Amino acid sequence: ISDQSVAASIAGVAFGGSVTLSTIKGRTHALTDNIKAFVDEDINIKANSEVNISNKIGAFNVGLVSAGFSFLVNMIETSTKASANQVELNASGETAINAQSEESIEADAVSGSIAGIAGLSGVGVMNLIDVETHAFVGENSKLNQDQSYDQLGQDVNIIAKDKVNLDTNSGNVAVGIVAGIGAALDMQIVHSDTRA
After folding, report:
1. Based on the number of CB atoms within 10 Å of its own CB, is 104 exposed (0-12), middle (13-18) or buried (19 or more)?
2. From CA 134, how far away is CA 160, in angstroms rounded?
3. Would you call 150 helix, strand, or coil by DSSP?
4. Which of 12, 63, 75, 135 could cross-link 99 (Cys pair, CB 3.0–4.6 Å)?
């Protein structure tokens, strides 16, 4: 998701605001159940998820009395799973059960008010990330039990990996002859459940 939003007003009493809400929910599952496989190469069970959000917002106001705000909220909720359940897998190469996810958020929010009497300005950025990334072998599963596939390069890898990238900037300016009040909020909440 990529989005830009700008609001502006010029008046005796000026008020303007800009709000952006971006929400992504997704599920990427590679589930292998109740199979038998005998191969002379590799076995790969992979689930990969990648989410990118880039948002820029701003609000600018000029007046005798001026107030402006910018508020930006980004929410990501994903589930990425790779699993082998009740299987019999035999490979002379690598048996890989791999779940990988990556979430990236770039957020910029600015707000400004210039007033002859009083100026009020506020800006807020909130990023919420809730991710589960699981790679597992379920009950009653057998990996490389057939000795006829026992080779020098035989290997088993069960990997779960999650990466979070956050780049946020917020700022505001409030100017008034009598009063100028400005406030900024920048909040990040990340919950990552990664299991292998």
Report:
1. middle
2. 6
3. coil
4. 135
**C-alpha angle with apex 18: 117 to 58, nearest 5 degrees?**
75
Query: Chain-centre distance of CA 47, in angstroms?
Result: 16
In whole angstroms, how far apart are CA 40 and each of 33, 137, 151, 196?
21, 21, 9, 25
Among 98, 94, 96, 97, CA closest to 153:
94
pLDDT digits (tens, 9 = 90+) for 68-117: 888 889 999 999 999 999 999 989 999 999 999 999 999 988 888 888 88
- The values of phi and psi at residue 153, to 5°, are -90, 10
Q: What one-letter code names the amino acid at 94?
A: E
Q: Are 111 and 169 in contact (CB under 8 A)?
A: no
Q: What are phi and psi of 148, to 5 degrees?
A: -70, -15
149 with 142: CB under 8 angstroms?
no
pLDDT of residue 103: 96
Q: With beta carbons less than 8 A apart as the criterion, state whether 64 and 12 touch.
A: yes
pTM score, two decimals?
0.83
Can you list the residues of the chain whose pLDDT is less than 70?
A: 2-3, 5-9, 11
Which runs of consecutive H residues, i.e. helices, occur in the chain? none
- Give CA–CA dist 172/110, Å, rounded: 5
Structure confidence at residue 7 (pLDDT):
60
pLDDT of residue 8: 65
